[in-house]
């Protein structure tokens, strides 16, 4: 081991040789235990020449090496299971003097993250020397070693070696559990995320896959996990990276002949957070690299967290062996926030921004008008906060309506509902305000029920939103009104004719 350490450098030695456990030496056959099949493959592909030279020095020309590969980590009751494998290639130890010489390669330049505004917790990654020449080809002997060694490279800053380089976790410090609003739409995902953050790598939620549509808070949640781990265990190396950046880094490492540096870097991570994993679709070599990194981290008890825009079963273009591993842990979805959650988000956001929270009816109006995703809702709130600060006015209903007209397209649905109310009120000869009033007069109740019926069938509003625009009524009232009108249409010809006449007006609209 000492001879190998001197030859390949401290960093690579710690990553690939310290986990090796010598099992037995029988005659001229040395058996070593490696923690995973990935280790076995990597050693045979990249370090076989170093192993052969070490065998020659210690056991002579007849030395042989066999592997004991751990395939099951076991538990307190069951010991680990290992598979014994011979080396896949001939390993008669050669005289190291027969090894060809290598030529040094120039270090790379250029920083792909130059100017990045991302900040967050970081750690120093210790380093050693690794070869810049691709392994498995030609390697120099120990005499020429000093000329063929170069510091390992950091894929987030290829212009600088890992040694002494502060490697940011790429986390946004503003994403925390404290400002992640919990609701029925995300309760499972948040609870699992908090469990993972408190005990990374030790729960059954490994990997944790969070999926959902655009703008629903997936990135906020997984970065909150990372920030929590950094806050409670600052010695751990937490890394957030998008699948797109991971892919670009891997391609860059291939072009620079630094795939080993790339792998070594990611194998040091204690908690890996990969965002938008669907981006790996149809990228075979990148998937293969991530597959091996995933295996090593998982078998080493490291935490893996991923996000996707769909559940694993619906991901296309990903290898089955990768999809199978995604299902090892927990898959939790994040859905569109319900009304109560949207109200809580609005209040929390305004409180964070130091803005006086508007009256309930204003908050309710905003929550009912923006129901697609959290990102869009926060965009409207940011606009309102800016308008309130610049105009030195409190946020009122009129300001909210103005902001909605300029930012979201939901206004069209609101105009349609407003048109329905005015048209129905005019048809039945009553003021439109009575449709929103508490009165129970028969002619008003009938008109209100008909208006709700058309609002249900001619707008994209939810029942809760429709009820809100009819004087704040409950969604069950809307359901009852729609059913009542449907029953009368089937049983009362005169009433059916009235509804058909109104329907023609909305069809023209």
TrEMBL record:
Primary location: cytoplasm
Region feature (Domain IV, binds dsDNA): 389-509
Keywords, comma-separated and alphabetical: ATP-binding, Cytoplasm, DNA replication, DNA-binding, Lipid-binding, Nucleotide-binding
Region (Disordered): 74-152
Residue ranges constituting the AAA+ ATPase domain according to the UniProt record: 204-340
Domain spans labelled Chromosomal replication initiator DnaA C-terminal: 416-485
UniProt feature, compositional bias: Polar residues: 134-145
Localization: Cytoplasm
Domain of life: Bacteria
Region (Domain I, interacts with DnaA modulators), start-end ranges: 1-93
One matching Pfam family: Bac_DnaA_C
Chain positions recorded as ATP binding sites: 215, 217-219
Function: Plays an essential role in the initiation and regulation of chromosomal replication. ATP-DnaA binds to the origin of replication (oriC) to initiate formation of the DNA replication initiation complex once per cell cycle. Binds the DnaA box (a 9 base pair repeat at the origin) and separates the double-stranded (ds)DNA. Forms a right-handed helical filament on oriC DNA; dsDNA binds to the exterior of the filament while single-stranded (ss)DNA is stabiized in the filament's interior.
Domain remarks: Domain I is involved in oligomerization and binding regulators, domain II is flexibile and of varying length in different bacteria, domain III forms the AAA+ region, while domain IV binds dsDNA.
Quaternary structure and interacting proteins, as annotated: Oligomerizes as a right-handed, spiral filament on DNA at oriC.
The protein's name in its UniProt record: Chromosomal replication initiator protein DnaA
Organism: Hymenobacter antarcticus
């Amino acid at each position: 081991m000492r001879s190998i350490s001197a030859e390949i450098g401290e960093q690579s030695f710690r990553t690939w040789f310290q986990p090796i456990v010598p099992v037995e030496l029988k005659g001229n056959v040395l058996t070593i235990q490696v923690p995973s099949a990935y280790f076995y493959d990597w050693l045979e592909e990249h370090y076989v020449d170093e192993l052969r030279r070490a065998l020659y020095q210690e056991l002579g020309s007849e030395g042989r090496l066999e592997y004991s590969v751990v395939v099951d980590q076991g538990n307190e009751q069951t010991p680990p299971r290992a598979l014994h494998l011979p080396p896949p290639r001939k390993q008669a130890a050669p005289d190291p003097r027969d090894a060809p010489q290598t030529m040094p390669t120039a270090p790379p330049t250029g920083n792909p993250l130059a100017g990045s505004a991302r900040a967050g917790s970081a750690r120093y990654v210790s380093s050693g020397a690794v070869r810049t020449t691709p392994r498995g080809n030609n390697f120099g002997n120990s005499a020429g070693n000093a000329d063929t060694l170069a510091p390992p490279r950091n894929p987030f800053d290829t212009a600088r070696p890992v040694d002494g380089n502060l490697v940011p976790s790429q986390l946004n410090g503003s994403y925390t559990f404290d400002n992640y609003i919990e609701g029925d739409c995300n309760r499972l995902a948040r609870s699992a995320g908090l469990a993972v953050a408190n005990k990374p790598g030790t729960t059954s939620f490994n990997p944790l896959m969070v999926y959902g549509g655009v703008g629903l808070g997936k990135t906020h949640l997984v970065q909150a996990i990372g920030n929590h781990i950094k806050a409670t265990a600052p010695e751990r190396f937490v890394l957030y990276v998008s699948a797109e950046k991971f892919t670009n880094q891997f391609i860059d490492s291939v072009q620079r002949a630094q795939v080993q540096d790339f792998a070594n870097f990611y194998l040091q991570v204690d908690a890996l957070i990969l965002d938008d994993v669907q981006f790996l679709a149809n990228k075979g070599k990148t998937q293969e690299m991530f597959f091996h990194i995933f295996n090593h981290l998982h078998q080493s008890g490291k935490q893996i967290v991923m996000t996707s825009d769909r559940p694993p079963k619906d991901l296309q273009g990903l290898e089955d062996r990768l999809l199978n591993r995604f299902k090892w842990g927990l898959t939790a979805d994040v859905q569109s926030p319900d009304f109560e959650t949207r109200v809580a988000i609005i209040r929390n956001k305004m409180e964070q921004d130091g803005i006086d929270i508007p009256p309930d009816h204003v908050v309710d109006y905003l929550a009912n008008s923006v129901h697609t995703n959290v990102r869009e809702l926060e965009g409207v709130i940011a606009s309102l906060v800016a308008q309130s600060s610049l105009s030195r006015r409190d946020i009122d209903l009129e300001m909210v309506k103005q902001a909605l007209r300029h930012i979201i397209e939901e206004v069209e649905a609101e105009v349609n509902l407003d048109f329905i109310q005015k048209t129905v009120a005019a048809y039945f000869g009553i003021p439109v305000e009575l449709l929103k009033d508490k009165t129970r007069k028969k002619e008003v109740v009938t008109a209100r029920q008909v208006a709700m019926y058309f609002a249900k069938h001619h707008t994209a509003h939810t029942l809760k939103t429709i009820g809100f625009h009819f004087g704040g009524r409950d969604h069950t009232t809307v359901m009852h009104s729609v059913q009542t009108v449907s029953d009368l249409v089937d049983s009362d010809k005169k009433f059916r004719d009235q509804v058909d006449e109104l329907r023609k007006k909305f069809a023209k609209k």
